[in-house]
Amino acid sequence: MNVLAIDTSNAVMGIALVENGVVKGEVITNIKKDHSTRAMPAIQSLMADCRIVPQALNLIVVAKGPGSYTGVRIGVTIAKTLAWTLSIPIVGVSSLEILAANGRYFHGFLSPLFDARRGQIYTGLYRYREGQLECVESDRLVLASEWAQYLREKNEPVLFLGGDLALHQATLAEALGTAAFFSPAPLQLPRPSELAFLGMQKEPEAVHSFVPNYVRLAEAEANWLAKQKEQNRYGD
Amino acid sequence: MKKDIYVLGIETSCDETAAAVVKNGREIMSNIVASQIESHKRFGGVVPEVASRHHVEQITLVIEQAMNEANLSFSELDAIAVTQGPGLVGALLIGVNAAKALAFAHQLPLVSVHHIAGHIYANRLVTEMKFPLLSLVVSGGHTELVYMKEHGEFEVIGETRDDAAGEAYDKVARALSLPYPGGPHIDRLAHEGKVTIDLPRAWLEEDSYDFSFSGLKSAVINTLHNAHQRGETIEAKDMAASFQASVIDVLVTKTVKAAQVYKVRQVLLAGGVAANRGLRTELERKMAELKGVELVIPPLSLCTDNAAMIAAAGTILFEKGKYATMSLNANPSLELE
Ligand SMILES: [Zn+2]
User: Fold this and answer.
1) Residues of chain A positioned with their CB less than 8 A from the CB of B53
2) Is there a contact between B56 and A212 if contact means CB atoms under 8 Å apart?
3) CB 3.0–4.6 Å: which of A15, B20, B64, B112 could bond B324 by disulfide?
4) 3-state helix, strand, coil in chain B (%, to 5)
5) Does the predicted model carry a pTM greater than 0.90?
6) Confidence (pLDDT) at B1
7) Distance B271 CA to ligand 1 centre (A)
8) For residue B179, is pLDDT > 90?
């Protein structure tokens, strides 16, 4: 059973190859650019190094967002094209869930996050129960300050994870005090091997209709819908 | 006997997700186009983020259909051709990454095609190209005169200095309150109306093959505005006819002159605006006066964006051994060379 995991959804580009439950190789960069030029070469060289040909793959797992719209589309396009043309299953995993997996031994809530500009973050709430990662609150786009207030009421320790922590650490620490914990640098980057293992536990999805989870509508579409609502209210 | 060459083409530069298989650069085995126009209509134009999202939804479906209709397996293909640019970067990225994944999975050569080269090579799906030739490329984003000495060699001898002809059509259509996309509506109205309004023609310098349409567009908008202020009405069909006459006059005159100066054997019409009836008719009329120069106008379905044209242009690159690597990127402002 050979699994290829692909994550280009955020600043980190991650590729992993897992063979029969053994992590054969991982590529992780945290330079936030050129996912389009570097993803396929990384897949090509990792598979060549591990001596696994495309036809020997059995499963493709991909990070499906939230994150950069363009970034997540690159990974999803590569993943669904490979899965379709090799006739193997595809599984999508939340980009936040992958990051949450880094908090395996933490007792409390896990709040993975990516910066979404203007004080907002993409986040969700996860926790490990009997070795299994569970989603407690679904992935969302929220103001960091609002999220911090919400977590305060839970009255439990929370571990925040992610490469964008520095941008929001002050806000979160202020609201949560000693209940807030922050992942150290080596645990801030989502690991593609975690993505592979999370994917192996999930059900495959239909390949043609597989799309990223953008969490929010395209701006033009949101505006259009708002206008439709407005017109319906005053129209008749 | 020479072996047949089969190329899969992929095109996602704007609002059309397309895949096609072409044999020997000339014969269409399949040509699938999933248009997003219905989705973009509500916004009055193509929204890049929305276009990119639709491409991801459609891409494998469209490729599967193209392969099924061609009745070929990937092992029977010789190369994968994809539009590298120009176009919307987010949209181009979907085609480029899908093409790379396919080339990698099946160890096939990958070739990257310039979108305009594709439009020109749509003509080779109609008839064999005869060099030297001249191509008039007119689309939403392009107005260019391209000279070709041989296969795969492009020399842009004239281009627009501001708006593309198609862009001017869309803007004038908006000024006339016509629905998006406006080009076909203007063409239709122009045939009902009369050329009653004197609009400018930008000839530029004596020996220039460049174009300029922003002055014409402004003249239309000003004329409409002034009439409105005086409480007069200008019939939309007469304005459409007058506008179209000005555009076509410049396009056709410059093309015919370049065809003579460059002593070409063929003139090819290319790009989405090649679907315009007015342009086709006038070009046919003027070209008929030129002896020994063949005029080729592809059918409508090959004028608008499609992947068969990309596969056709890509076949030449494959034959020349000009392969792309796995680090191929989309280039929204790629130059034709
Ligand atoms: Zn085009």
Assistant:
1) 73, 211, 214, 218
2) yes
3) B112
4) 45, 20, 35
5) yes
6) 62
7) 6
8) no
pLDDT tens column, A197-211: 999 999 999 999 999
Mutate to test the interface with A, among B15, B40, B49 (most CBs of A within 10 A): B49
Facing residue for B102 by CB, picked from A74, A81, A208 = A81
Residue B206 has pLDDT above 90, yes or no: no
Strands B27-35 and B16-23: antiparallel
All domains of chain A in start order, with CATH: 2-94+190-220 (3.30.420.40), 96-187 (3.30.420.40)
Q: What confidence score (pLDDT) does residue A236 get? A: 47
ipTM: 0.95
pLDDT digit string (tens) for B273-320? 888 999 999 999 999 999 899 999 999 889 999 999 999 999 999 999
Instruction: Tell me the per-residue pLDDT of B30-55, one tens digit each, with 9 for 90 and over.
Output: 999 998 888 888 888 889 999 999 99
What separation, in Å, do the N-terminal and C-terminal C-alpha atoms of chain B show? 32
Which range marks the domain in which residue B117 is found?
6-121+303-319
Ligand 1 centre to CA of B307 (Å) is 10
C-alpha span between B317 and B152 (Å, rounded): 7
Total domains in chain B come to 2
What is the rounded distance in angstroms from the CA atom of residue B62 to the CA atom of residue A75? Answer: 19
Residue type, position B14, single letter: C
B73 → chain A, closest CA residue: A85
Q: Which amino acid is at B64?
A: E
CATH code at position B97: 3.30.420.40
Rounded to an integer, what distance in angstroms lies between the CA atom of residue B287 and that of residue B284? 5
Burial group, residue B337, by CB count within 10 angstroms (0-12, 13-18, 19+): exposed
CA-CA distance, A2 to B318, in Å (whole number)?
33
For tokens 């000003």, name the residue. Answer: B222
Cα dihedral value A194, A198, A199, A202, nearest 10: 180
For the CA atoms of B233, B236, B242, B248, what is the dihedral angle to 10 degrees? Answer: 160
Strand partners, B296: B268
Q: Is residue B327 assigned to a domain? A: no
A209–B52 C-beta distance less than 8 A: no
- Tell me, yes or no, whether B179 lies in a domain: yes
